[in-house]
Amino acid sequence: MSWIDALPTATVLLALLYLPGWVGLRLLGVRGVLAVAGAPAAVVAVLALGAVVLDVVGAAWTPATVVLLLAVVLGLCALLGRVLPPGTVSLPPLTPRSWALVGIGLAVGAGVQAGAYLNGMGRPDAVQQIYDPVFHLNAAETVLRTGNASSLGGLDPMYGSSTGVFYPAVWHSMVALGARLSSVVVASNTLMLLTGLVVWLVGIVALARAVAPRDGAVAAVAPVVASSFLIFPANLLVLQGMFPYCLAIALTPGAVALVVGAVERSRAGEPLEHAIPTVRGERPLASTVRGALAAVVACAGVVAAQPAGLAVLGLFVLPYLGQVGARRGLRQWRLGHRATAVVAAGAAPAVALALVVAVYTVPALQAMAAFPAAEGSRRLALFRGLTFSTTIGWTSPWANVVVAALVLIGVVVAAVTVRTRWLAVSWLLTLGIYVVAAGPNNVLRDLAGFWYKSADRTFAMLPTVAAVLGAMGVVALGRAAQRLLAESRAGARHGRTRDWLAPLVMVGVLVLAFVTSGAFRYDERQNGWTAWGFQPDRILTTAHASTEELTMIRSLDDVLPDDAVVLGDPRNGAALVQSVGGAVAFIPHVNPSSWDADQSYLKAHFGQLRSDPKVCEIVAADHIDYFYADDSGPEAWEEASPGLYDVDTSTGFELLAEGGPARVYRITACG
Length: 671
What we know:
- By secondary structure, the chain is mainly alpha-helical.
- It has helices at about 5-25, 30-55, 65-85, 95-120, 130-145, 170-180, 185-210, 215-225, 230-240, 245-265, 285-305, 310-335, 340-360, 365-370, 380-385, 400-415, 420-440, 455-460, 460-485, 490-495, 495-515, 520-535, 545-560, 575-580, 595-605, 615-620, 635-640; strands at about 565, 585, 625-630, 655-660, 660-665.
- Residues about 270-280 have low confidence and may be disordered.
């Protein structure tokens, strides 16, 4: 399959991500890049809630019902748009030239990464053979097969006999829609690329615009800086495939930009030099209501993608709201409004304190904080957080040092500027959470419980804020060079040259960063982080299936009936019969916490089916007609599932397909 063949799927998913959300936000009064960047988060919020509603009313998750759902929501947006007083939420306009530069920046940022990912994957139907993607691929196939995309029980088949399981299913619901044009694997790969190359980068542009609303240079540079990082999206999204959480990260900058735009619009009447002026004829209160509604929906989308998105938003939004609240509180205090001042200044800190207390008191968060996670050195984590070096790979840890320096310059610029000081605080908090999560176990590390104390999960948040700060550093250097020339005698004689110096310096700095980092670590991005997840002979961990085995699994769609239930060790390729082969994997994931009693029993005793009557009882009760055999895996796999290895298939089994070391049999021994 070629990448051209995947274009219809990509087009549909791109339209799903942007078109309904953009129209809805426009109807609510959101304009410009805020409406574009906030659209995916709004769509995710609607799809997540809509899937629950459709499940409650007994309607299947199909393109028709989703279109109807979106039409109803857009109708409500149109009604609200007419009922609410006139008002808009937007940022100061940029010149066409500035927007052209932003477009170039986006193209460069996306292009640098896209080439590595497409070449590293090889083909759009390449199977991601890492721990998390195996689950997510089968979860998407479950939604496609059952027509239930609800996060409240829709993925129950992934958990054996469990019912009412909560799991954020909006990612899988979108993959299921795209899979109708191709396959689950193609739709998942396509949505993964759109998430990292479009949703995230467009969101970063919007965040840069919100941070520096009258400076298009920051927005143009930010996506280029973003393309220099590997922890996100290369590591966490493309390699590890933590799709719901990565979707939340990708949605965050657009949602935060919408929050900033909405709050700044509400402050239009305040005596602040950076407040965004209102459009003549609008009512500030109306703009506030419209902006607040849009921002809440977008933030809800981040949380709906993955609940940890709430903590991600907290690190980005609370510093901003805290800064705004502190200034407003101080002003109210001076006016004698003591109670109002306390509420304004204390609201954001109170929410932050509540999140901290929740980690240590809420049972679900305590369980997440107790999750076993590898310990490490905080000093090494601080070094990596400052240099954006990787835990594995072959490029020098100093490869991205130019960008690292630009980010630090941006931190200083942000810290000394009233408007952007919150961004420096957000960077510091995010860096701190990563360092704590990557360190040794103690009470302090439990603060990272929202992220299962995972170093990679916390580190992956840093590029979003660092991209904007790095862009601010680039622009600051260019403007500083321009000022120095202007103050010199040569500058006075060469005014035209002086005007071009700032952009030349900016481009020069970016080229320096690109060249000294090996094209932003292109080779490692392609042949490391991408190939490690998709190329069977280069999988970072042991591959679940070889190339020959995958060919056989793909052929099962023509060999087995659609409702065929296949038993096998999920580690040796059997789990892939569901997302790749069109059958149902009796054990669809390698995580023991998702196995029920029947699954665990067969893993231990299936090979005794001729002497243990309970085996055939389970096989009959669970409608298992097929067995996936592959004894070529590591010894540890056999030790974990002894009943599924060295099974005597000489009698009682009918060979149906084979590829590489794997074989698929019809079970006849149980009658």
